[in-house]
Design goal:
Blueprint: H1 3-70, H2 73-96, H3 100-129, H4 138-145, H5 149-239, H6 254-281, E1 289-290, H7 291-308, E2 312-319, H8 322-329, H9 331-347, E3 354-359, E4 362-368, H10 372-388, E5 404-411, H11 418-434, E6 440-442
Parallel strand pairs: 1-3, 5-6
Antiparallel strand pairs: 2-4, 2-5, 3-4
């Protein structure tokens, strides 16, 4: 994942959190609106309807009384309208109320109102049959009513029953008002609770969103800065010369690709350094160590031989009549002979021995932990290996083949220093050549 993608993912996660919080807040507001629109509105409407219903019964009862006092038929028409309005209010309250208790009360109210209206209809029907006297004075009506003793008891019962029903209707209406007022107060408390809950949740959601956004930013920054820190340490180590250091590639983003490029660069530098070192310490023709490197090795080995009191031997190997070889076969064939001789000598030595080109047709061999007797055995093996090899054009040499002369010296008997050991071996080589070549000799 690239750094750009990581940043886009971090931004997307943050936006998602904000969007989710927005959706939750919208749902919470919808719930709150539902409570306001359904519970509060229904309770307010039901309470208003109960209030209007009570007022309607009071108005209807007042119309009946006024009719009985005045005999005005228009009052009965208004009473009919108030009766229809009361029934509509009862139906509206029943429709808006969800409580089973209110529904039971509404059924009772419906029965009481039906009975009340029937009794009021019977009473007004009686007064419509027996017209009021003209004038409509209360004293006149009272005197007029005494003319009907057979109906007195009946009218009294109707009036008493109607009053009781009306009082019960008032009581039910007051109870309905109280119940809806209680429900309204409870709904108000629910709304306040939801508001508190919303504020608390909004605070936590905002804190969580901030924390999540901060976490995403920290993780994104860590995923970017941590590899950069490792890369910086790697650069410092390379600057200090440690080309063996390689950094782990932990991602496939730009930093991961940069890390891969850095590792490729260090490997390339290491290979180039190795080639440069090899070119510095090796002979370009034979591939053997050069004499400069040989001098460093013999100095270390001489110090070790002194410290641990161990022998150290040096052999100098010279190809016999090499000028004659070059003059007759050419320098190119001479180079072939040098390369072939170097290969044969190297294969005849131990891994811990050091073989270097001394110069021209001469080679020098360093034999650690090797006594004079053991070194002489090595010299014999080297001379025999060269003598038995089939060099191109070797048959044209004075001895009928390519041969070598070897001079040797051993620490501590022949010399106490590295340069003295080389000089002693060179003297041995001179003696080997003076005594006929194709042999080895120790200076004495």
């Amino acid at each position: 994942m690239s750094i750009k993608t990581k940043l886009l993912v971090a931004a997307a996660v943050t936006l998602f959190c904000v969007f989710a919080f927005g959706i939750w807040s919208e749902n919470h507001q919808s719930r709150l609106g539902s409570v306001l629109s359904q519970v509060l509105a229904n309770n307010v409407e039901a309470m208003n309807a109960a209030t209007e219903l009570k007022r309607g019964f009071i108005y209807h009862d007042d119309l009946i009384l006024r009719y009985m006092l005045t005999g005005d038929e228009r009052l009965l028409d208004s009473g009919g309208r108030s009766k229809k309005l009361a029934r509509r209010y009862i139906a509206d309250i029943k429709r808006r109320s969800l409580s089973p208790r209110i529904r039971e009360m509404m059924d009772e109210l419906l029965g009481e109102s039906r009975s009340y209206f029937e009794e009021m209809s019977a009473m007004t029907g009686f007064y419509q049959q027996y017209r009021f006297p003209e004038g409509g004075q209360i004293e006149t009506i009272a005197v007029w009513g005494k003319q009907f003793p057979q109906h007195k008891k009946y009218l009294t019962a109707l009036t008493s029953s109607g009053q009781e029903r009306l009082e019960r209707i008032y009581e039910i209406c007051d109870t309905l008002i109280d119940i809806n007022r209680y429900e309204l107060e409870r709904a108000r408390q629910d709304v306040e609770s939801m508001l508190d809950e919303g504020r608390t949740a909004a605070g936590w959601a905002a804190l969580l969103t901030f924390a999540l956004a901060a976490l995403v930013a920290v993780l994104s920054g860590y995923s970017i800065l941590s590899p950069l820190e490792v890369l910086l340490r790697g650069v410092e180590r390379v600057v200090q010369g440690d080309l063996n250091f390689e950094m782990p590639v932990t991602s496939a983003d730009e930093i991961g690709r940069l890390t891969q490029a850095f590792n490729t660069m260090t490997r390339s530098l290491k290979e180039k350094q190795h080639r440069l070192v090899q070119e510095t310490i090796t002979d370009g023709l034979t591939g053997l160590y050069n004499f400069r490197y040989f001098q460093e090795v013999i100095a270390r080995e001489m110090e070790r031989a002194r410290r641990y009191d161990r022998p150290l031997s040096v052999l100098i190997v010279d190809i016999d009549h090499f000028k004659h070889f070059n003059d007759n076969l050419g320098h190119e064939m001479g180079n072939v002979a040098l390369t072939m001789a170097a290969k044969i000598l190297k294969e005849s030595l131990r891994p811990e021995d050091t073989l270097s080109r001394y110069g021209g047709e001469e080679f020098v061999v360093l034999l650690p932990d090797t006594s004079k007797k053991a070194a002489q055995a090595v010299a014999h093996r080297l001379r025999s290996a060269i003598e038995s090899a089939q060099f191109p054009g070797g048959e044209r040499q004075p001895l009928g083949r390519v041969t070598v002369s070897i001079g040797g010296a051993t620490y501590p008997g022949d010399s106490q220093s590295s340069q003295g050991l080389i000089r002693s071996a060179d003297k041995g080589l001179y003696q080997a050549k003076e005594t006929g070549r194709n042999r080895f000799a120790w200076a004495f």
